[in-house]
Amino acid sequence: MNDTAKLTTAASHDMGSIPNTHPPAFWFFFWGEFAERASYYGMRTLLPLYLTSVLRFDDADASSIYYAFKMSAYFLPLIGGIIADRWLGKYWTIVGFSIPYVMGHFILGIEERWACFVALVLLACGTGVIKPNISALLGQTYDEKRPGREALRTSAFMWFYFSVNIGALISMFALPFIRDHSGYAVAFQFPAWLMVVALAIFAGGKPFYSREERVVHTITPEERQQQRETLIRLAGIFLLIAFFWFAYEHNDSIWVYFARDSMYHGFRMPDWLPAWLGGGKQWTQQADSYQYINSLFVLLSIPAFNILFRLIDPEKRVFTSVRRVLIGFALTAAASGVMAVAAWLSQDSSQQVSAYWLIAAYIVLTLGEVLLYGTMLDLSYAAAPKRMKGFVTGCFLLTNTLGNLINVFYGRLYQTRLTPMQFFLLTMLIVLGATVAFYFVGRRFERSQNSA
């Protein structure tokens, strides 16, 4: 038997001794992330109308506050990664910053402006610092507990993302009903206690997580040059992706304000439904209670797109990564176009328009999100050198920060200098411009990747 055969036999023997099932840590990650994301997205669902109806901010100030909060939440992951890598480690960083995160949820229930600002600072620090470390600790745990089982780790991340959207779906659907029946103070208790549960579940799993050895890697001049070249190659794409987030992030704030003012929310349930399902009854929703449609269609469209593309283009020769992103851009522009049509109809009519326009816009936007966001995560990871995977992915996440930074100022134009129709139409045109620009930038990027 030659040396290669011996190595292959040894590797097969070693892999045979490694279980092909998820380690116990998986369940602590799954349920902990489920509770934390339900907490976070539930709080965000209520926040825009809370700022205007309870704290009495006008729409312009409320949107600026909200976008600044989201901008911070997507910038702080960079800080979270540094804290974990250099000082506390991932586990203790997550536990340590979960405490102010929990405090922020409870303080937000105090119906005072000062309390809101304190709470938002704590919440941004908590979610921002935790965000990059929980997924990294999950990956490390699988590398240690199930070495070589890459398919198992991929499956774990899929279920991890599934838990995020299930948690978001449930809280986005439930919290507006709790608010309507019991008020904001009680409604904010729901995400607060969910965060307590998330912290308890995560802390309980410590014996099952990977051992952490903090090693600070010194960047060589060659690696620094490689970083520079990679970022230059991706800079144009990342800059344009910020305009996707710029339009996308209107869905849970500006769209809510438009729905509050210009849409009627009564639905008659079909008569053929049984009475216990509300058949024949009138169902009325609030303006912020449609946001769960986003998470619902994320869960539906991810497997649908995977099956569709696997059947019609398994080699990604037609629907390349760049073309999928391009379609995502076009759908995002179309979603703003749907809102522009709804706004046009409402200004030319004495009656409010149907909320079905809002539902249609959410569905179109979500399809664009799944195509663009999921594809860009993979594209960013694949384009980065081995030692830059985390760095480049972090730079991609910063595009959301830039999009929200633009909205801190752009959002103030809604109902002040621009009518709703003008606002949504201008948003659509801006994203269409970014779509055209991405067509050329993306082609150049593909050529550079193929020649590399």
Could you walk me through the main structural features you see in this protein, from its secondary elements to its overall organization?
This protein has 452 residues and is mainly alpha-helical. The chain is 77% helix and 2% strand. It is built from 14 helices and 4 strands. The strands form 2 sheets. The chain has a two-stranded parallel sheet with strand order 1-4. Strands 2-3 form a two-stranded antiparallel ribbon. The relative contact order is 0.12.
Q: Can you describe this structure in just a few lines?
A:
This protein has 452 residues and is an all-alpha fold. The protein has 2 domains: 24-209, Growth Hormone, Chain: A (Up-down Bundle); 221-452, MFS general substrate transporter like domains (Growth Hormone, Chain: A, Up-down Bundle).
